[in-house]
Amino acid sequence: MDTYRKLLLANQAWVQDKLSVDADFFNKQANTQQPDFMWIGCSDSRVPAEDVTGTEPGELFVHRNIANLVIHTDLNMLSVLQYAVEVLKVKHVIVCGHYNCGGVKNAMTRHDFGLINKWLRHIKDVYRMHHRELEAIADGQARYDRLVELNVTEQVQNLAQTSIVQRAWKNEQRPIIHGWVYDLRTGYVKETACMEPGAKMDEIYDFDFDGTT
Ligand code: CO
To answer: Would you name the residues annotated as active-site residues?
Structure first.
C-alpha cells in the first residue's frame, strides 16, 4: 500500500471516532469557529500544535513557517494575524519555538542554502543582536538552545510592534502574547516570554493612533 493511503484510512477512522463520541461533531464544526488562541509555530513535523496542547479542532487558529518567525513584511503571517485579532478576536497569541530547530541551527552556520538564506537571515539578525550573550556560552548545544529562546522572545516583540496588536491592545485590552519553547526531548512546553496589553516597548515602535505627538 502506498504510504500516503494510510493517511486517508486514518481519516476515515478519525471520523468514526469523533462521531462515536458526538454524532453532531461535524455539524457543529461546519458553520463557525471561535478559537481563543492563535498559534505561530515552526513547520517542523515534530511540533504538531494541537497534539502538544491537547486542543481540538476549533480551538487553535494556526500559522506555521520555518522557525516560527514574525516578519513585518510577511503578508501571509500578517493576514492570519489580522484575521485572528480583528475578526476572531483571539485572547492569546502564542509563538511556539522548539529546541533542535533546524531553521535556527542552519542560521548559525555560514552555509549557503540558496533561497532560504533570505528567511534564515532574520534569525542571523537575532544572533547579531545577542551575540555577546551567545558567544559567552561555551557549550554548542547550550548556545543553540539559547538562540531558540531568544528567537521566540524577538518574535513576541515583533508581534507587539505591529499596529494590528497595538490597536487591539488599546481598544480591547487583548490579546496577551506568549513566547513558548517546546522541548522535543521531553515533550514539555515552557513559557519564556509574555507581553500583556499596554506592555512597554521602544517608543519608536509604539504607534500614536490619536496623532497627538
Ligand atoms: Co523548527
So the answer is: 42, 44, 46, 98, 101
38-85 pLDDT tens trace: 999 999 999 999 999 999 999 999 999 999 999 999 999 999 999 999
23 Cα: distance to centroid of ligand 1 (angstroms): 37
Ligand 1 mean position to 31 CA, how many Å?
33
Gap from CA of 100 to ligand 1 centroid (Å): 7
What is the distance between the alpha carbons of residues 171 and 64, in angstroms, rounded to a whole number? 27
CATH of the domain spanning 34-45+57-197, picked from 3.40.1050.10, 3.30.365.10, 1.10.1270.20, 3.90.420.10 = 3.40.1050.10
Q: Which pTM value belongs to this model?
A: 0.95
Whether 130 contacts 154, CB under 8 Å: no
Instruction: Indicate the DSSP class of residue 205.
Output: G
